[in-house]
């Protein structure tokens, strides 16, 4: 019989931040919180950047061409988190792979990969992985890791 | 005391935002990790990673605590480093071998294999 649980707040019984779910194959368990994306965004980077949809983003800042800062509503627990993203460009029937990626600039990673925000470049990569920043219409990224 | 709740669907208390437990299970990342691939390689933070093995310059094996059910899973990777001038740089690693319980990846810089200080990986798919 199908069952539905209506609840606003799921917490572990032993530890509030640890709710366990059973794997698809049934032979393992995993911590629900660890597998959930802590941030995702889909945005239009042209003109005044606009967020099409997002989760855990409090603001999107335009720093320049292909240069954006996503500020989290709830900060990550530290800077040791995973982030990856892409973009899409299509003109005249020709499409190209775009990357939403950590900003490459002086100041180093510590300046751009923060617990409270991430500053990214949206770039076109040529065959030699040379980067060109640009404002594209379709960009998206996500974050996995520990929330504070 | 440990407790177990068996349910097909989760909703908020208003009856909205419905999500099936199958979506929760299948949609959750099964692995994520941030590693230091330089010197003696190290796990900075991770989930469902039992260990990493240094294979060669730029090459590493990621082993999973709980294995995937098959090799038909997705991987997403990126690597970052601060260059000699102190500027952040980002590269595209590649997965070149995969098994249910592990995968190997390689990081490059200008087509040459190179160890990077921040290697980021994530896996989606079905656990065994």
Please describe the structure with a list of short key phrases separated by commas or semicolons.
heterodimer; A: 148 residues; mainly beta; nine-stranded antiparallel sheet; 1 helix; 3% helix; 49% strand; B: 128 residues; five-stranded antiparallel sheet; four-stranded antiparallel sheet
Could you explain the architecture of this structure?
The complex is a heterodimer of chains A (148) and B (128). By secondary structure, chain A is mainly beta. Helices cover 3% and strands 49% of the residues of chain A. In chain A, strands 4, 5, 6, 7, 8, 9, 10, 11 and 12 form a nine-stranded antiparallel sheet that branches. In chain A, strand 2 and strand 3 (29-31) form a beta hairpin. The longest helix of chain A has 4 residues, at 32-35. Chain A starts with a strand and ends with a strand. Chain B contains one helix and 13 strands. Chain B has one helix spanning 21-27, and strands spanning 9-11, 19-20, 31-36, 42-47, 49-56, 59-64, 74-82, 88-91, 94-98, 102-106, 108-109, 112-113, 118-124. Strand 1 (4-6) of chain A pairs parallel with strand 1 of chain B.
